[in-house]
Amino acid sequence: MVASRSPSSSSPSSSSASPSSPSSQATQHQLIPISSSSSSSNNNNNNNTRRPRSTLLPLGCDADSNADAIANALLDTSVRDTTVLITGVGVHNKRPNICWEVARILAKHGVTVCITSRTAKKAKALARSLQLALDKEDSETPSENLRPRGRIIGISKALDLSSADSVYDFVDEWDKHGLECVDRLILGAGLGLVPGRQRTTDRIDANFAVNHLGHFLLTNLMLDALRASKAFRVVVLGSEMHRGIPGTDPIELDLEDINCEEYTDDWEAHPPCGQAAYMSYARSKLCNVLFARQFAKNLTNLRKWAPWKGTSSVVVVDPGLTVRTGLTRHVPVTPGSKAGERNRAILTRTYSRKNNPRARSVRQAAGDVILAAFAPTLQPSSVYEEMVKEGPLPRSGKNEDVQSGGTPFWYLRERDVSDPSEAALDDEAAQDLWEFSCDLVGLK
């Protein structure tokens, strides 16, 4: 994914600044404090206890509430003036994915939703599927309970995140849609666990290109549309896979081996997808967090010499281990093959709500994304601060410079503010990744 041309608008320059807490145009809601026993851990082994409550959840919702319930409690009529651009909306085996559900629910509440896809035809088809789903819901809803529906726009320009040229072309065409600003940019597109060595036409690891580099470029090129908003927020769908898995070494950034050449792609010896595919995906998720942190810092610096009136915030959200999203659709499960049957057993054990109590439905995961995009505050409450006795608050939950116009960064998991991995908190690695990414896509 290489480009030689410069963007129509310059990206925020790299510099150091402290993260802080976000402002929002949404109506304030009472928040539920979390118990001290569920405070986040920084080590590589994830806490396997599901948190029953969250500082972010509106009253009446809990850890198992689906996206419809969260949206009904959280969103009010003010969101009807909101425009959201979403990547990654899709349907796999007739089953909507997380971003499709997010788009459906936001449009249902009056938000203008813009859908992207690798082809204009597919974007239009996805928009149509959402319209039909909402038509069906409306037909089953008493007339007195119907809400004004938001526009669903299938963007007529293709967006192939594996190609810098495609991203540039997409943004060049954006003004033709007559949309003044983007209030929420939800970056949900991504590849998953794909065995073998997947490369773009520029011979770059496909997970690195799509999951990180394409979104990096898109976000920077959309900066003018974002800054036209009164309160914009960039939401990146991340994953706890950015830490690695328990019992293995933590994932770290290695810009000298972005194609994971030092790892084997033998998926039979290293189920379910081979070392290279696992590292490719995990590192791309680490890049998501590093990029988001650096983007927030750069926005803080940019505001000092090119101020704008609105507020800004950047959030990475882990939607959890979600079933039926298509993430593992490329994992070999060949019937009759010993390795294939082993993979099938792994997926059945892991991606099944019956067999894994931590597995989540698509609609539950969509609720996390809606919280990340529209929670009126991501600052832990004073009640929460008093209850946490077993360690400091997460570093992504500190309010240091928001009063001076800084852009906050937040990492959310299990519907609460948390810390990403130690590698994701490495300031030098974040800046190195930013500069490396700029060189690859031609940003100045």
Order of helices and strands: HEEEHEHEHEHHEHEHHHEEH
Q: Percent of residues in beta strands?
A: 5-15%
Rounded Rg: 21 Å
| Helix-strand category | alpha/beta
- Global mean pLDDT: 80
Please explain how this structure is put together.
With 444 residues, the protein is an alpha/beta fold. Helix content is 33%, strand content 10%. The protein contains eleven helices and ten strands. The strands form two sheets. The chain has an eight-stranded mixed sheet with strand order 5-4-1-6-7-8-9-10, with helices on both faces. Strands 2-3 form a two-stranded antiparallel sheet. Helix 1 packs parallel to helix 9 and helix 5 packs parallel to helix 7. It is globular and about 60 Å long. It starts with 66 loop residues before the first helix and ends with a helix. About 14% of the residues have low confidence.
Outline of the structure:
By secondary structure, this protein is an alpha/beta fold. It has helices at 67-74, 98-108, 120-139, 164-172, 206-221, 223-227, 275-305, 338-350, 362-374, 382-387, 427-441, and strands at residues 83-87, 91-92, 95-96, 112-115, 152-154, 184-187, 231-237, 311-318, 409-413, 416-418.
Feature tags:
two-stranded antiparallel ribbon, 444 residues, 10 strands, globular, eight-stranded mixed β-sheet, alpha/beta
